[in-house]
Amino acid sequence: MSLQGLFENYDRVSTEFTQDQFEANRFGLKLEMRSKHIHSCRQRELRETLSQQPGSYSRRLRNRKLPFAEYCYACCKWSCSEDDWSNHCGWHLENPTMRCGLLSFRYTLAVAGYCPFCIGSEGLPSSQRMQQWMTKSTLLNHIDTHLKADATSECPHPLCNVPLRHASDFRAHFQDAHSIEEPRSNCVNRKRKREDTEEMPEQTKTV
Questions:
Q1: Has this prediction a pTM greater than 0.90?
Q2: CA gap 117, 181 in Å, rounded
Q3: Which of 10, 80, 97, 124 has its CA 20 to 30 A from that of 54?
Q4: Strands (DSSP E) found in the chain
């Protein structure tokens, strides 16, 4: 793509994002919810566009289920089929990084979070191992379920085999080595049960 084409594409995306942001403001969404709202709108628009392509779905099935579309925050890339997403997650598992914590900037999610236990569970499908978590509280609540159920004596992350004993050791290690931040002691306890269900990807709900 030429330099002029890059600038034209940037202007188009900036205009579309501004329009989505205007819609988010119009509905009176809180700042911390606008990024999630815009992402959901983008995902829905892409899936609806794919559903209109010839041969994608019959008209009957099109009314029941929209085509697959998943966004990788690490690569800033959309996958438009379950096979493509599975292969993409497989590539990340073959090229893992130590960071598993979320990264946000001005209420906008820049990097999704990942569970070290799921990443290290080789028996799970690649899409489940690389499940993306959109809020810190839901990721921490999910990790807590592993700490209560999984009996392990070392860090489960593939790049890490640090020996650990207690749940507090795991939490401290995840924060220091994998950038999964725990809430400050003066913050409200994490209790976002409703968001836990909202954040489960659609393709994993049927598993």
A1: no
A2: 16
A3: 10
A4: 70-72, 77-79, 103-105, 108-111
110 neighbors 78 (Cβ within 8 angstroms): no
- Write the CA distances from 92 to 86, 151, 179, integer angstroms: 10, 26, 18
Asked whether 68 and 80 are in contact (CB, 8 A), the reply is yes
| 27-31, 34-38, 82-86, 146-150: least confidently modelled range | 27-31
Which neighbouring-strand residues pair with 79?
70
Output the CA angle 35-40-43, nearest 5 degrees: 125
Which residues lie below 8 Å from residue 154, measured CB to CB, with a gap of 6+? 160, 161, 162, 163, 164
Reported as a single tens digit per residue, the pLDDT across 190-199 is 554 444 444 5
With CA atoms as reference, report the closest residue to 39 among 142, 110, 127, 87. 110
Tell me the two tokens of residue 126: 């690649």
Pair 147, 167: CB distance under 8 Å: yes
Mutual orientation of helices 3-26 and 31-51 as an angle, nearest 10°?
A: 120
Closest CA to 98 of 8, 36, 174: 174
| Residue 184 C-alpha from the chain's centroid | 23
What is the distance between the alpha carbons of residues 129 and 132, in angstroms, rounded to a whole number?
Answer: 9
What is the rounded distance in angstroms from the CA atom of residue 109 to the CA atom of residue 29? 16
Pair type for strands 70-72 and 77-79: antiparallel
Measuring CA to CA, how many Å separate 165 from each of 82, 96, 97, 151? 37, 24, 23, 10
How much is the average pLDDT of 21-26?
54
